[in-house]
Amino acid sequence: MQHVAWSFAEGAFARGDAVLMLHYTYSSVKKSIHAYAARAGATVVEVPLPFPVASPAVVVAEFRAALARARAGGRGVRLAVIDHITSMPSVLIPVKELVAICRDEGVDKVFVDAAHAIGQVSIDVRDVGADFYTSNLHKWFFCPSAVAFLHIRKDDPIAAQLHHPVVSSEYGNGLPMESAWIGVRDYSAQLVVPDAVDFMSRFEGGIEGISRRNHDKVIKMGMMLAEAWGTFLGSPPEMCGSMAMIGLPGCLGIDSDDDAMRVRDMLRNDFKVEVPIFNNSRGTEGQKMAKDANGDQVTGYVRISHQVYNVREEYEVLRDAVNKLVRDGFSCSKLRPSGKVQKYRVPIPRS
Fold first, then answer.
1. 68, containing H or E segment
2. Do the beta carbons of residue 245 and residue 260 sit within 8 Å?
3. In whole angstroms, what is the distance from residue 351 CA to residue 349 CA?
4. Three-state SS at 347
5. How far apart are CA 20 and CA 33, in angstroms?
6. pLDDT tens per residue across span 242-269
7. 6 CB contacts (<8 Å, ≥6 apart)?
8. What predicted TM-score, i.e. pTM, was given to this entire model?
9. CATH number of the domain at 1-194, out of 3.50.30.60, 3.30.70.20, 3.40.640.10, 3.20.20.20?
10. Measured between alpha carbons, how far is 260 from 126 in angstroms, rounded to an integer?
11. How far is residue 129's CA from residue 131's CA, in Å, rounded to a whole number?
12. Average model confidence (pLDDT) for the chain?
């Protein structure tokens, strides 16, 4: 992003040239695009992905349409930022196809944000073909925070033009050296990586076996929850990694991001369940809101994950908590601020 900003400032890019990103790109990445690229003169164009999503083909079609808008008026598309797995809602994106489209349509550079990918899906950065590919090892690769990698195509001349955002005495000696020695950074987290690899090798099939079993189990648990709530998965199994989105009963009335956060807090405080909740009141043009078995519009989704230490009983606690809310006639309107403080608490039977 810093390099993009300098490219606008130094005249390598024309003011108004475009940067393309998904609507569900992670918030800090979106803000980085605006902080660096848009401020320097870029036009930011978003790909409005539908959710729930029916197939990879839908994502490809929306991407093509957004790319056409980005190129309107003869604008150059300088950068496309594509998530390998979006965070919220969680969807496995067909990155290889989207990168190929960018190549065909003359997009200068493609950056794949794969923060959730390593440990969830099999990765071959050369096969993906992006100019930049980055992932975090602390999410699904059993490493501490602050462990990540950035892969840059070796034959790409831009590699010599990139610099670490923190300038050190290694400035000008290449990005690997600039990244290797930064002030008083604690490198102990990175030293754990070989031990993490050794740990995963103890499981049948190593990391690929772990991710395969996690995928199978998260789909199984997702289908169990969907059946109990009369809803559905937010994307087909082939568009899930080790995370899955499941629709919540529409009667809960999750109509805003604030509602979603309040329900998340309530599940944590009253039921001891920690689960992210997504509000989907925004639909793409022409897309009808999905409905549950009772005919209510589904505006809220939970994002469940599965790792080697998770057990079925944990998902059953979530299932039963939501079912209790439905039986009690709960609605998010009971949690919204008003002149009178309202709280929802689980009735505790007297002993």
1. helix 56-70
2. no
3. 6
4. coil
5. 9
6. 999 999 999 999 999 999 999 999 999 9
7. 40
8. 0.90
9. 3.40.640.10
10. 39
11. 7
12. 91
